[in-house]
Amino acid sequence: MKKRILVVDDEPDFTYSIRMGLETLGNYEVREENAASHARRAAREFMPHLILLDIMMPDLDGSEVAAEIREDHKLRNVPVVFCTALVSKKEVRHGSCTSGGNVFLPKPFDLEKLIECIEDLTQHVREEPSGDASLVPEPAPTP
Length: 143
Known about the structure:
Elements: E1 3-8, H1 12-25, E2 28-33, H2 39-46, E3 50-54, H3 62-71, E4 80-84, E5 97-99, E6 102-106, H4 111-121, E7 125-127, E8 133-135
Parallel strand pairs: 1-2, 1-3, 3-4, 4-6
Antiparallel strand pairs: 5-6, 7-8
């Protein structure tokens, strides 16, 4: 089962390179969106397992896009990773950091760190009987 990743960034070269890097591995299906104002619609159509979201974009701020996504009952549980040059690698020890419940991945990042972040945040994705994949909480341990 391929994990669906939505990449929202106003730089087409960036979204293209992420898509090509991830899809080449065969484990991911990636959709690019270069207009922040279309991110929510793209997410509802694609139903990603994770969203990579730039913070600074011309039409909408990434935090505004994340707020729209979290207000949507179909999308609210989809993890959002902010990809930003506003956080440096020096500020982050393991390649990503969490602040205020949000995950930040500093730009530029290498594919290995991106995959590590994606896999960590989507480890509970499983395929449903209908063939759809969704985020499912881990089953409670049996006593």
